[in-house]
Amino acid sequence: MRCNLIKALHILRIWIMSVGNHLTPKPLKRAGSPLPEDQPVCKVLVADSENVKVKKRMYALLMMYSGWGYFGMQRSPTHPTIEGELIKALISCGFLANNNPEEFRKVWFQRASKTDKSVSAIGQVCSMLVTPRRRRNQTESEFSSTRSHPDSW
């Protein structure tokens, strides 16, 4: 499909050049005619495994939490907050490198609403742009150790 589109664009470019240049008209290539050998239709790029850029995806996170013991949703450097706990979870799962504000801006974190001190939420929605991580060899015990347990709060 992609090669056909590239071929059609190439033919269209040749046609536009031939129509626009009245002094030296160029022959119009038809869809079935072969392209010149020196111009490849499709270029296949092979990337090194180290330089592969993985596309980030926007994820929505629907969460429910008890705000007791927290100073609201929005992060604060001096008080424990829900966003602070979320950042810790993202770091432990490998989605963020550290608790740096610049690193947090890279994920385009957005929240639908904010809560005040000791206010709980049943349907809080947040979104973030992160790289999907799939661990095929991760066992259930390794997965459960990365999750936060309510007794540890």
Automatic annotation (TrEMBL):
Highest taxon listed in the record's lineage: Eukaryota
GO CC terms in record: nucleus
Gene3D superfamilies linked to this entry: Pseudouridine synthase I, catalytic domain, N-terminal subdomain (3.30.70.580)
Protein species of origin: Fasciolopsis buskii
Organism lineage: Eukaryota, Metazoa, Spiralia, Lophotrochozoa, Platyhelminthes
Listed transmembrane segments: none
Isomerase recorded as keyword: yes
GO MF annotation terms: pseudouridine synthase activity; RNA binding
GO biological process: mRNA pseudouridine synthesis; tRNA pseudouridine synthesis
Signal peptide from the UniProt entry: 1-20
Keywords of this entry: Isomerase, Signal
Name assigned to this protein: tRNA pseudouridine synthase A mitochondrial
